[in-house]
Amino acid sequence: xxxxxxxxxxxxxxxxxxxxxxxxxxxxxxxxxxxxxxxxxxxxxxxxxxxxxxxxxxxxxxxxxxxxxxxxxxxxxxxxxxxxxxxxxxxxxxxxxxxxxxxxxxxxxxxxxxxxxxxxxxxxxxxxxxxxxxxxxxxxxxxxxxxxxxxxxxxxxxxxxxxxxxxxxxxxxxxxxxxxxxxxxxxxxxxxxxxxxxxxxxxxxxxxxxxxxxxxxxxxxxxxxxxxxxxxxxxxxxxxxxxxxxxxxxxxxxxxxxxxxxxxxxxxxxxxxxxxxxxxxxxxxxxxxxxxxxxxxxxxxxxxxxxxxxxxxxxxxxxxxxxxxxxxxxxxxxxxxxxxxxxxxxxxxxxxxxxxxxxxxxxxxxxxxxxxxxxxxxxxxxxxxxxxx
Length: 389
What we know:
The protein has 14 helices and 16 strands. By secondary structure, the chain is an alpha/beta fold. It folds into three domains: 1-83 and 277-308, Rossmann fold (3-Layer(aba) Sandwich), CATH 3.40.50; 85-98 and 134-270, Rossmann fold, CATH 3.40.50.720; 309-389, Alpha-Beta Plaits, CATH 3.30.70. The strands form three sheets. A seven-stranded parallel sheet has the order 8-7-6-9-10-11-12. Strand 7, helix 7 (173-178) and strand 8 (184-185) form a beta-alpha-beta unit. The chain starts with a strand and ends with a strand.
């Protein structure tokens, strides 16, 4: 069995080399692809053909992918959670230090100095008091969102001597195990803001997080606090942040998402979306996305999907595998089993998992599944996709 993969961006060769060319055709101009590999290309206006079985993004966020539409079609969307976590963590720590020591304003000050060495030294001594900062030990960092990146940021801040508060009502067991025992739980986002000197954001850009940082929440912070945004621009109310900077409620705003208003503000450090911009992160994301996509195409297993449940079933020897995506409604497994029994097929192993309105079933049978049975399964009301591997 071979597969055709459409590439929408430059994907690290280290990832693409995980797709053996005797079974995978990989190119940017493929018609009727079985899957799509993407980084930042906007897919919302694309007309994806019915042949597409999966979309994989070599990165964490999936805002550029029409996830809801693909879910309705029974198409899983994969991402690469944690593959760029170290790169983003290092930039967040950089931002924390830039804010604490007023590095960027001080640098701009020195770049503007004129005169000989004696004049320069006099200006430096006279001007440096304007850039007095603070040290991190003893300060409190509030981390909103404890996914792969948030956990790493919390842990390194704790190692630097900071008191760390974290809030994430959806934290997974895996991330909880990774979190330092010294990180304290905040009872709510408001509680976190009220107890923090610096707040860093690590949540996805969804409707529930839009404008999460507002004037009301900023007022809860200790005067002269700093805000770090390496998540998405829309998570903060920009006008409220700029007003807080002007009023002295905030001393600094470090953002990876420049806008005309923020780039011109003297208390803002705006970076050109550098979070995952390291060679290592690009390679790690490509490898994870490719390996996840390949496993799904070849074995039907689901890992790291943003819209489908986790579903991994080891393949039994001498069996034949079906993978079925369907609406999460009663009696779907019963109808599928009945269809298989009508052809005299015995189920050797079965896994059924659900996530919200979507369910996914992997079935291994002892004998080959006739094409007519696959057609019958696809005709069941509620079945979104059924394929024989």
